């Protein structure tokens, strides 16, 4: 089991690019430092866009999990 | 702020290029414009044409082409000269741009919109070609000219009730007046129906 | 009698009302159907004109018309800003206190900008998404002598998805025409890792921006603006100084929709094909107000109006509603220097921009004038 608690999970399945990334950005903006946000995406572009943005923004990508047709990105607000 | 200034000459352009490499190529034109960025779209047609050339290398084709060239050498020569002069003057470019407007229309319209427009054109055309209307319209110019002439002649005479009544005895005036009065009657809109619900 | 109520006097609401009135003329004449359009102002405004207004290239007379003149005579026009919608009672309640019963409701209330959601933006930023904003920007541009001009896309989605790119291209042309381009640095920023959310448009636009010497910043999500220091701070931790900021604010559906419980994350959840509001069989939504992954553009509202009008007419006649929206979008793109191109795409097919030309620019200018025929449902 992963040693983190997801504070908020966003279901962005079926949302086309850049929906899932924008949802994640919005959620992290609202979150406190140290909180963990997860986003579920079925958009293939997310697999590149989300890790790239998380790195650029200086947050931490804790996990990338396949969940059926979707991918779950677990991100910690690090700043 | 200083951080930003430093980044100004930085590799932001490089980042973009890298991302474009991951974009699925839709057409030759997507990739062709990227190199320098200056040649907006110009290479698109060229890229497509050269891609097509490879597919056309069928053995039967050159023979047909050769035959056509031999049989029509003079015409093709003249046509090519026209084409070349159009190219030099820029008309060819204009022509291709005008043709792209057709593609624009095709892109913007839908079946519903085309049907709607055709229906309206048909509706207007049906009114415009109605025999009753065309008959009236064809009588208008001569009537206008005659009326102007009459009015010019009568300009000095003061109209009086007696002169009006006298004119009514003219069978032509009488028929015209009867026609106009009837037209007024039939132009009247339907009497407004009392609205049942006034909940607003 | 069946009552169709359409909320919104933009392109979507107006075209829906006109198409319905034309199709249902016999039923309306027989008082079996009534069509009412409820809007918050007596004038219809052609919003795409604001981009041109920012450069002083159009006047209010050209982009405003009395709403009544655009509506089929059989459509009843009600000017009464909506206070809320009671979906349970099937009623629209106006600010006036009056209520309007409906059998079917069409929500075409558009989007509004909320600059106040970004700290500092309202004080330090300009925008061209409202009439006042465009007129203010026009004055600022006249007075601008030199420095850094930033066109920053802050809120996504926003109205007219290519307008920020057009603004950047037109600014470039504006300063070149005045011989001041060398005194101006132009910067265009976008929240994700390319210059537009649509990959094909981004691939087309990036070299176009580069060719004009417009610097781009991607993965650029504005957190706040410092009006005193004239600096943008992003959540990525970068900063960007500006002399003139044109910020595309966050957008949202009008507040009465949230108050009526018809929104989710700011927009009205809508079926992508039938355009029915999710969970509400008798309510349709179209145009900027929906949560659909399509452009918030007039053409979209126009295409959707055809679908909604057809389906409503069918249902009012007790027939199955078969029309479906396929995501069709059409946008002109002004590329500056009196040239333009366009894109057309739908749910399945990505756009393929064509080479910009003056002819397409003229087609756009002509369309701006013939828009009123579109609103009337003629084209």
Question: How would you describe this protein?
Answer:
Chain A is of the alpha+beta class. Chain A has helices at residues 19-30, 46-56; strands at 8-12, 36-41, 60-67, 70-76. Chain A has one domain (8-76): Translation Initiation Factor IF3 (2-Layer Sandwich). Chain A contains two helices and four strands. Chain A has a four-stranded mixed β-sheet with strand order 1-2-4-3, with helices on one face. Chain B is an all-alpha fold. Chain B has a domain at 112-185. The radius of gyration of chain B is 36 Å and the shape is elongated. Chain C is globular and about 65 Å long. The mean pLDDT of chain C is 94. In chain C, helix 1 (11-23) runs parallel beside helix 11. Chain C contains twelve helices and 22 strands.
Helix fraction of chain C, binned, reads 25-40%
- Summarize the helix and strand pattern of chain B as letters: HHHHHHHHHHH
Could you tell me the CATH topology label of the largest domain in chain C.
Answer: FAD/NAD(P)-binding domain
Which assembly state applies to the chains in this document? heterotrimer
Mean pLDDT of chain B: 72
Strand order of the largest sheet of chain C: 5-2-1-9-20
Secondary structure layout plus pairing:
The complex is a heterotrimer of chains A (79), B (200) and C (379).
Chain A: E1 8-12, H1 19-30, E2 36-41, H2 46-56, E3 60-67, E4 70-76
Parallel strand pairs in A: 1-2
Antiparallel strand pairs in A: 2-4, 3-4
Chain B: H1 2-7, H2 12-22, H3 28-32, H4 42-55, H5 60-71, H6 73-89, H7 91-108, H8 111-128, H9 131-153, H10 161-168, H11 171-187
Chain C: E1 2-7, H1 11-23, H2 25-29, E2 33-39, E3 43-45, H3 49-53, H4 60-63, E4 64-66, H5 67-70, E5 75-79, E6 82-86, E7 91-94, E8 99-101, E9 104-107, E10 112-113, H6 121-124, E11 125-126, H7 131-143, E12 147-153, H8 163-177, E13 184-189, H9 199-211, E14 215-217, E15 222-226, E16 231-234, E17 239-241, E18 244-248, E19 251-252, H10 255-259, E20 283-285, H11 298-316, E21 329-336, E22 339-345, H12 358-375
Parallel strand pairs in C: 1-2, 1-9, 2-5, 9-20, 11-18, 12-13, 12-18, 13-14
Antiparallel strand pairs in C: 3-4, 6-7, 7-8, 10-19, 15-16, 16-17, 21-22
Helix pairs in contact in C: 1-11
Annotation keywords:
heterotrimer, A: 79 residues, alpha+beta, Translation Initiation Factor IF3, 4-stranded mixed beta sheet, 2 helices, 4 strands, globular, B: 200 residues, mainly alpha, 74% helix, 0% strand, elongated, disordered N terminus
